[in-house]
Amino acid sequence: MSETYPVVTADPGVTRQVLSERAELMVVAFTFEKGAEGALHRHPHVQSTYVRAGEFLFTVDGVEMKLVPGDSLIVPSNAEHGCRCLEAGTLIDTFTPPPRRFPLRGPEMLNVDTRYAIHAEHAKGMDTEALRENFLAESLFIKGEVNLVYTHYDRMVLGGAVPGSDTLTLDHVAQAGTPSFLDRREMGVVNIGDTGTVSAGDETWTLNRGDVLYLGCGSGPVTFEGDGRFYLASTPAHRNFPNRLITIDEAEKLSLGSAETSNQRTINQFIHPLVMESCQLVLGYTALDVGSVWNTMPAHTHDRRMEAYLYFDLNPDARIFHLMGEPTQTRHMVLANEQAAISPPWSIHSAAGTSNYTFVWAMAGDNVDYTDMDFVQPGEMR
Fold it and tell me: Does residue 104 surpass a pLDDT of 50?
């Protein structure tokens, strides 16, 4: 017997109903009132759209096209797209692979994706899509939304907030199980965009590109405004430490590598024992010099904590080849700009890019000792 799915409100004047779904495919009907809009957004899924009724003006990666009944189009993975309904009608959208969730367009504009812990033995049998499904966060930075990935690795949450012309508020997150997200958590905010502001309680901070804000346990709702692109990393916390804005000039810096080994880089330590106290979050970012492409080689693991890497400062055509897996069972994922890799405690984390880049590293676990690593020499890796 086929399952009947409810009709739900997706946007003002727009309803959504899943028609059918399987592990590989989902078919959805969207019904629009005249003048209603599907806001610009992007997602990793390939989408086909068929116009069953009505007239629509579509925008796909900046290109506009008018569609009438019988017309169809393909939206490539991660292409920015949206539409405006010129005459009331219905679209039939097909997604592959199926989305885990649909973007919420309510007042909070909050989306949360949960990633469960994967055993190293399980990971050995994963193909490319399974690795990406479990260890890649690829749609964190969508204008007008807060997107979170709630991992079961040390309960690390990573995410992105892009306010644009909106004001975004991060408050209640059901997965955290508390009235407000930071009731029992601390969080680091890294601005990888233009200047924006972050507010919590009765304090407001202006973050320029490269600045990092630490928010302690119990900070309450957090508001984002302006032109920033805010990367978020949050971990459980057992006590409160003072909120603090840390500029790039205040970060502890460590220069490593050389041009000869293609890994000349500057490590900027922000939420770090040499700079400030935190419960368990350790965070900073590493910038590779022009001509350098390797990071974290020799590779390492640290069974006492997990880590996540967000890669940015890449041009649209550049790619990161992120190494992961047990040292003798290595795998890789190919990442683009502003995508993040989730690294379990049993996995190495290292990468080479097609150009230089910057990456935010964030760790959570039993200690805050940045040097607590179990190194693996290249000759030991398989």
Answer: no
Q: What are the pLDDT digits (tens) for 243-275?
A: 999 999 999 999 999 999 999 999 999 999 999
End-to-end CA distance of the chain: 48
Q: Which superfamily does CATH assign the domain made up of 110-380 to?
A: Jelly Rolls (2.60.120.10)
Q: What CA–CA distance (Å, rounded) separates 231 from 221?
A: 16
Closest CA to 201 of 221, 187, 180, 178: 221
Determine what percent of the chain is predicted with pLDDT higher than 90: 81
Chain centre to alpha carbon of residue 360: 12
Q: Which has the minimum average pLDDT: 174-183, 273-282, 320-329?
A: 174-183
The C-alpha atoms of residue 307 and residue 301 are separated, in whole angstroms, by 9
Tokens for 221?
Answer: 């709702």
Cα distance between residue 149 and residue 336, in whole Å: 17
Q: How far apart are CA 61 and CA 307, in angstroms?
A: 33
Q: Where in the chain is the domain with CATH 2.60.120.10?
A: 7-96, 110-380
Question: Which residue, among 353, 342, 272, 356, has the nearest Cα to 310 in the 3D structure?
Answer: 342
As a CATH number, domain 7-96 is: 2.60.120.10
Instruction: Please give the torsion angle defined by the CA atoms of residues 205, 208, 210 and 214, in that order, rounded to the nearest 10 degrees.
Output: 0
Helix (H) or strand (E) holding 121: helix 120-124
> Model pTM?
0.76
